[in-house]
Amino acid sequence: MAGLIWRGAVLAAFATACCDQVVAAPPNIVLLVADDLGWNDVGYHNARVNTPHIDRLAAAGVELDRFYVCPVCSPTRAGLMTGRYPHRFGLHNDVIPPWRDFGLSTDEQCLPELLAEAGYQRRACVGKWHLGHSRRRYHPLSRGFTEFYGHLNGAIDYFTHEREGELDWYRGFQPSRDQGYATTLLADEAVRFIGDHRGEAPFFLYVPFNAPHSPLQAEQQALARQGFDPDRPRFGSKNAAADLRGRGNTKRQTFRAMVDALDRGVGRVLDAIDQSGQAENTLVWFLSDNGGTPQHGGSNKPLRGAKGSVWEGGVRVPTIVRWPARITGGRKLDALTAYIDVLPTLLAAAGGAPTPRNEIDGVNLLPLLGGSAPPADRSLYLGHHAVVTQDWKLKDGKLFEMSARPAERADLADQHPTVAEALRRELAAFESLTSDVQSLPYGEGREGFVAPRDWAVERE
């Protein structure tokens, strides 16, 4: 017991010292987001997957083992940018499709806007936006970013950078005709941004990679590293109409080659941080936007479920935080944490940041990450009539004990009626926050849609 008290006192003193330094030296912030990367798709969870760069980030940082996101990507991205549950402003149940005139509400303050007020002069979004493409008001450059390179829609072609037959690749507001594999181009740009930073003010770099989201397309050298055999057919080759560009022998092989490209991109970003001499005071946060999709090669084993569901496999994702100057690495935390915590945590790290005008649903994780505070007693809303706590999950009226994870098989509502009723009340409180304005179902409005030339964003 004395040893535990001593260790707690040391950690508390360390955290106090860190808080004093945070105000004096705000960190560079690099937020890396993978797209549809499953629980079982990283090496530190699955030895059969080769992700050495993500693994070294995990070894040097803190693994957040119970980190939750939304079951699909636009809502998770909205929560990252606002620190708020996206059902508050109409974005919880689905992504924003190409034919939809909708976006992240302009009543919401975004993370880069708040960081600008905290002294972050350069704020770049490099990758997949997916929070509105139909009007300039939804564009990253209208939401606090000073630089944008990447695509506005999801599920673009990795080689042509097209969606719905039109180029969706931008530098700022202007179409970019850069040639190359999308994941590699995004890593190139992130490395350039870090290398160009010479100012005294810290920077914010948001890199939402499009990998390994479908379409399943990988570069030949990445496929070769995953055992591609050119003498065997590519998957889908029996379909005469199939586009076989970038396909391997199997879906899983192709997916793993795409993860390989993602991992190499992450490694290049980490190397650029090291080479800049700023690694000690650079906060790197890595996560996936939702669980993997087995039909596209992803895996969430041993968790139940997949992208689109609120089973663990759909909403519990690989997540790592590294900040050498302030947080002791090489640890794993199983405390309940979530995508809505990213904004308040980064604002606290920035020091002197303004208070957002809208109520924040997330919490500042720095005391937990620094070891000066125990895990918060909290519940998280997952959408789709589900809520989770440290010990329990209520989903569609059924109660699951999370200490028995990842099974989520036995409904214990009858054995624990008091717990079930308490969580029903929690769920009702969360769902009472739902906005009257909600994005329409994904396919609605698709018929007859024609994408604008080069996905031009002309309307305000």
UniProtKB/TrEMBL annotation:
> In this protein, which residues make up the domain named Sulfatase N-terminal?
27-351
Q: Which residues form the signal peptide?
A: 1-24
Q: What GO molecular-function term can you cite, just one?
A: metal ion binding
Q: What is its EC number?
A: 3.1.6.1
| Alphabetized InterPro entries for the sequence | Alkaline_phosphatase_core_sf, Sulfatase, Sulfatase_CS, Sulfatase_N
Q: Which domain of life is it from?
A: Bacteria
Question: What UniProt keywords are attached to this protein's entry?
Answer: Calcium, Hydrolase, Metal-binding, Signal
Similarity section: Belongs to the sulfatase family.
What PANTHER family does this protein map onto? ARYLSULFATASE B [PRECURSOR] (PTHR42693:SF27), ARYLSULFATASE FAMILY MEMBER (PTHR42693)
Report what the protein is called: Arylsulfatase
Q: Which organism is it from?
A: Posidoniimonas corsicana
Q: What is the lineage of its organism?
A: Bacteria, Pseudomonadati, Planctomycetota, Planctomycetia, Pirellulales
